[in-house]
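REQUEST FORM: STRUCTURE PREDICTION
Request ID: SP-0412
Submitted by: Lab K.M.
Chain count: 1
Length (residues): 187
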Amino acid sequence: MLNHKGVIINRCKGVYEPAEDTFLLMDCLKCGEDVLEIGTGTGIISIYCAMKGSRCTATDINKKALECAEKNSDLNGVKIEFHHGNLFQCINGKYDTIIFNPPYLPTEDNIEESEQWDGGSDGFKVIRPFLSTAHKFLKDNGEIYFVLSDLTDMDSLFAEFRNYNFNKLGEDTFETERIVVFSARTA
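STATUS: Completed
RESULT:
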C-alpha cells in the first residue's frame, strides 16, 4: 500500500506503479473543475484531484489498470468516471485540466508490458498523438499537464507543436535521467 498527498493506493500486478514521475506530476499540477486523466494507471492522480473537489474522468488502455483505479477510488471514497480506451478514443466533452503521464522512455524493446514505459525510438510515439488531439478536448483557458524525460529531444517536440504554449513546472533527477513536468495551453 502506498500513501502520497493523502491518497491511499493499492498496487496492482500489471499496472504502472506510481513512482517519482507520478509524484512530481502531482506536486506540479493544479486540478481544475473538470479533469480528464489519460492513462490513469492506479488512479492516484485522478483520486487526488477528486479529493480536491474536481469532477474526474479517467481512461486507460489497460483493463487491469481500470479495475485497479476503480478499487482505489472506492478505497479513498471518491467518485470517478472510468473509460476503457486508447487516448481520447472514448471521450466526449471538454475539460479544464487534462493530465497524462505517458510512456516517455526512448526504447526499441519488445518486452511484455513495456507499453507502460516504451515511448518508441524517440520517446514520443504516445505523446505525439496525444498532443495532436488534446486541444480538441480542452476548454478555453484549460491546461494540459504531462511528463517528459531529458533522454528525449524535448525542443523538437515543442517545435512540432507550435499550437501550444509550453511551460516547465518542475523537474527532478532520478538515476540517470531528468524528469520534467510541463503544462501546455493552446496558443
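NOTES: The radius of gyration is 15 Å.
Reviewed by: T.R.
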